[in-house]
Amino acid sequence: MPFSGTTIPVLDCTVLCVFKAFFARTKDWADIEAMGEAGSVDAGDAVGWGEELLGAGHPSALRLRDTLAPVRGERP
C-alpha cells in the first residue's frame, strides 16, 4: 500500500484472521468472532487457508471453522 512516498505491506482482514488463529489467544478468538460478525472476513477463504496451513484436524483450524460457521451459514 502506498504510504508517504514508499510502499508498506498490509494484511487484509481475512489474512489477519488466519494469523490470529495461528496465535490462538483468547483475545484473538474474540477478534475473529467480531470480524466475522462485522462481515470484514471472507470466512470461506479464512477456513480454507487455516486448514491448508495448519492441517484440517489442527485444534486452531477446527476452532476457526466453528467460530466462523455462523458467517458461512453453518452450525458450529
- Sheet of most strands: 2 strands, antiparallel
Radius of gyration: 13 Å
**What fraction of residues sit in β-strands?**
5-15%
- Per DSSP E runs of 2 or more residues, the count of β-strands stands at 2
Low-confidence stretches: none
- Number of alpha- plus pi-helical segments: 4
Arrangement of strands in the largest sheet: 1-2
For the termini, the CA-CA separation is 36 Å
Average pLDDT score? 95
Question: What count of domains describes the coordinates?
Answer: 1
Helix proportion range: 55-70%
Indicate the overall shape.
globular
Topology:
Elements: E1 2-3, E2 6-7, H1 13-23, H2 26-38, H3 43-54, H4 59-68
Antiparallel strand pairs: 1-2
Mind explaining what this structure looks like?
The chain is mainly alpha-helical. It has one domain. Helix content is 61%, strand content 5%. The protein has four helices and two strands. Strands 1-2 form a two-stranded antiparallel ribbon. Strand 1 (2-3) and strand 2 form a beta hairpin. Helix 1 packs antiparallel against helix 2 and helix 1 (13-23) crosses helix 3 (43-54). It is globular and about 45 Å long.
Short description:
It contains four helices and two strands. By secondary structure, it is mainly α. The longest helix is centred in the middle third of the chain and has 13 residues.
Key structural traits:
76 residues; 4 helices; mainly alpha; two-stranded antiparallel sheet; single chain; 2 strands
